[in-house]
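Translate sequence into structure tokens.
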Amino acid sequence: MTMTDNDRLLLNAYIDGELDPAHALEFERRLADNPALTDERRGIEALRGAMRERLPRETASPALRRRVAALARPQPFATGWRAGWASMAASVTVAFAAGSIATLVAIGPGPGPGSREPSPELLVGSHVRSLMASQTVDVASSDRHTVKPWFNGKLPQSPRVVDLTAQGFTLVGGRIDVIGLRPVPTLVYRIREHVISLTALPASLRGSATIPAIDGYNIVEWTDGPFTYWAVSDVAASDLEKFAKAFRAGEAEPQPG
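Result follows.
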């Protein structure tokens, strides 16, 4: 049996202890049935062991410790989105410092601030991880007037939120993903039994004109205003195109005057 990029993502999450017990048990069954995946696990664990034995353990410098502590320290005078952004930046900094080298090798570098073409694999991986979580959203609501304000104060900008119930796409809620160390808003819709993750990246991070499916997950990308939207789902490509067309044409939540 062969391995997909998602298999490698899940393998590293399993080795890092990031899967909950139910999904860890399910992945162990996949390991037992896939010799190639088992060999990959042995290779990663052997690499980690060799690195622990042969490479000196680096410790954070006092200057770095002070910077991380300053980011994590509550800011009593910060208000609005600035406070939320500072808190998120601290979380991302600490998470990055604690990340494993094996995981970074497996998924490759993400799009940095100067990148103009984010990796579709990162967006698909983020979608897959949300499906493995106990729930796919941080705020669960079918009301766009609830979902859009939830992002305010957490991110510098919130995306359009469109009610597409009449077109067959139900709003499930929203969450914050981290793509290439950048916290970004993601809206979640559902059609039948299929989940659609709609991630809003800055418009400067454009994708390719045509994006092929990755491991059975279709991707549609377009730019609207300050955002480039990336829709990811295992729903049929025609349905995902229909969703993208309906979202672009839909009426967004009115902005306060």
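Note: Residues 120-249 form a domain with the Phosphorylase Kinase; domain 1 fold (CATH 3.30.200.100).
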